[in-house]
Every structure is written in C-alpha cells, then in structure tokens.
Amino acid sequence: MNNTDKARNTMVDTLLNKKEVNWQEVLSTVISGFDCSTGTIHFLDNNTALLKVQAHQGIPAFLIPKLSEIPIGKGMAGIAAERMEAVEMCNLQTDDSGVARPAAKETKVEGSIAVPMILDGKLYGTLGIAKPVPYDFTEDEVKDLMSIGEKISKYLHA
User: What SUPFAM superfamilies is this protein classified in (predicted)?
Assistant: First the structure.
C-alpha cells in the first residue's frame, strides 16, 4: 500500500470511527481521494435483495430515482454485487457490453468502477466512483477500494 492509499484509508477510518457516520461525507472523501467527480454508496437490503442508495454525489437529479434501488445483477453496481468483484469501464460513454444501464450514460462520466462491499464473504453493498475522462483504475486502486468497502462492511456488521 503506497502513501496515497494509506492516506485514503486513514481518512475513511477517521470518518467510520465517529459516533454517527455521515455516509455523504464518507463518499465525498472517497471521491476526492481518487480524483473522481461522481459516486454512490448502496447498502444491501437483505429483506428485498435490493441495493439501496445511502449516498450519492455528482448524479443528475433525474437519475436519482433510477439508482435509488438496484437489483442484484443489473447495472455496474448490481453486477459487482452479483460477481462479488470489481466491475470497471474505461469509458462508460462508449461501452457496448450491456453492463452499464442506458441511463448511466446520462451521468456524462467515462472511467468508472463499482466494487462490492464484502466482509467474511458476505455482501453488504457496493461502492461506485467515476471520472469525467476515460480511465483504467490501477490494480492498487482497485485493492484500495475493496479495502474501503471492507471497512464500511465492518461498520455495518457491528
């Protein structure tokens, strides 16, 4: 873990150690730490098996209803949850794989990633961030995002 990764993790640790966690602040810190412009945190609702948005930033208002509840297996967040691994796109605008939902292109972001938040093999939700330019997240960045997801899962598990 390099110094940038350590700094990001330390900032998230500080926010998760507060008596009451401000999920918007956690997301903003992650977005800023990865030099991104948009992002979401979804928690898994075990009763409905839906990912429910807890925080979002940089998402156009008309898209909020479409991402408020995401079925497992749908869109980047849903597929990351289903596969229990990171799902990444260098350029969401030109992607034709079918992974990104058509409305996702309305965000105007390009380089994007969604990671599952996992603790001890159990899914707690997803974390997604994106940049306004084409971008491939590095292996270290993916590991760091997965680590942040695990930290959030530990908080939710407690």
Answer: GAF domain-like (SSF55781)
